[in-house]
Write a structure and sequence with these properties.
Distance between the termini: 30 Å
Order of helices and strands: EEEEEHEEEHEEHHHH
Number of domains: 1
Structural class: alpha+beta
Low-confidence stretches: 1-20
Helix content: 25-40%
Largest sheet: 8 strands, mixed
Bound molecules: zinc ion
Length: 250
Amino acid sequence: METSNPTPDAYPPGNLFGKQDQMPIQRIKALAGVPILYDREPDSNYGHTGYPLRPYVDAKFAVAADRAFQEMFLSLAAAGVGEVTSILTGGISRSGGGVGYHERKRAFDLDGLVFSDGQTWVANSFNTRRFEYLIIEAHLRRAFGTVLTYGYDQRFEDHIHFDNGDPIGFRKHSKSRTLFLQNALRYLFDQELECDGTYGPETQQAERAVRAELNLGALSIRDNWDHFLTASIEALEERLSMPAIVKAFS
Ligand SMILES: [Zn+2]
């Protein structure tokens, strides 16, 4: 086993706490032109609706999030899932002098998406709507280094947390990144392996087979990781646009 003790990626290395990475803060009313709704007050709003937020966020984070959601929404439309009309969040920026990325206005908790036909995608549905979950996650991974999801730990069973505290790219010792890799290998590229977030020989073998098929070098190189994510998104669009197959896998 290459690593039986994956490092948590929820917190940044200490050397990122300096003032040199402070960016201007701006107030946003939408991302990719879509309003952001806070869906945790009351709790029964979770996954359905909420009240509009106009959060203050770090400028660089806002640009990355805007682009990620734009591309995600194009993908969801292309896959026939629908047109997104609201983004549901359980929290973005927090006040106070804490050292977490929410306090630094560089993090977002994604609870769900509302579509123009009234349907919703909710972040607690990984086991029943895996392809929607993975296509949303893949787009976030193209734009953000830290993406914490279902299966990472219990805190992330009802939302996807993302922030820009960590560089974009694949690392074997990152549990969250390995979990995505394993899910993609298993559900998109039909490799048989356990999805436990630990990068071992089984994962390595499956990864090599799929990289050979995609003609890709090591995923630790950012371009290759991005190509792997793009190939995953293409596979997801294809599977999502074939309802019979989605059903068979869910
Ligand atoms: Zn969070």
